[in-house]
Amino acid sequence: MTAPSQAPTQACADDVVSIGDAAKATGVSTRALRYYEEMGLVRPAAHSPGGHRLYAPAQCARVRRIRQLQDLMGFNLAEISEILANEDRLDSLRDEFHRHEDPAHRLRIAEEALTVMSDLDARVEAKQKRLAEFRQAISERRRRAEVVAAELQQEAP
């Protein structure tokens, strides 16, 4: 990952860019991009004639989504892989919904979308529960430390 002081650049906003420019634009390292590819989280849009990875705006947006899920929600890459698979499925269901006019077919699509969204909601809820439990444990430790500190202050000359 790039240093926090390095702001992502505008590269990758409108063009296909090299892996280095994509890394700068998304705030990750080229190594991270290669690792995300290895994990199946993101694929380059194309390769140059020399075989270098090229990234389009869609891939850069996906990398930013990965970072958001890591930083904001604290998901690990395995969890992110499952979340992205669900989000990709929702995108394909939306496309399929708009291609069909048969109400019965559209209903099946809507029901599947609801199932996928329920899965995503359950993942977020489970993460929030684990975070709340962690926070509670920290609060309990802090309270014990405050009691010990107060006792020591009374004993100090």
Q: Give the mean pLDDT.
A: 91
* Amount of beta strand: under 5%
Task: Note the overall shape.
Answer: flat
Helix content: 55-70%
**Largest beta-sheet details:** 3 strands, antiparallel
| Annotation, overall tally of beta strands | 3
Q: Main sheet: which strands, in order across? A: 1-3-2
How many helices? The count is 5
Q: Please compute the radius of gyration using only Cα atoms.
A: 23 Å
Structural class: mainly alpha
Q: Residue ranges: pLDDT <50 for 5 or more in a row?
A: 1-8
Domain tally: 2
- N- to C-terminal distance: 50 Å
**SSE order, as H and E?**
EHHEEHHH
Q: Can you characterise this structure?
A:
This protein is mainly α and 157 residues long. It has two domains: 1-72, Orthogonal Bundle (Multidrug-efflux Transporter Regulator, Chain: A, Domain 2); 74-157, no CATH class. It is 69% helix and 4% strand. The protein contains five helices and three strands; from the N terminus they run E-H-H-E-E-H-H-H. The protein has helices at 19-26, 30-38, 57-71, 77-99, 103-155, and strands at residues 17-18, 46-47, 53-55. The protein has a three-stranded antiparallel β-sheet. Strand 2 and strand 3 (53-55) form a beta hairpin. The longest helix has 53 residues, at 103-155. The protein is flat. The N and C termini lie far apart (50 Å).
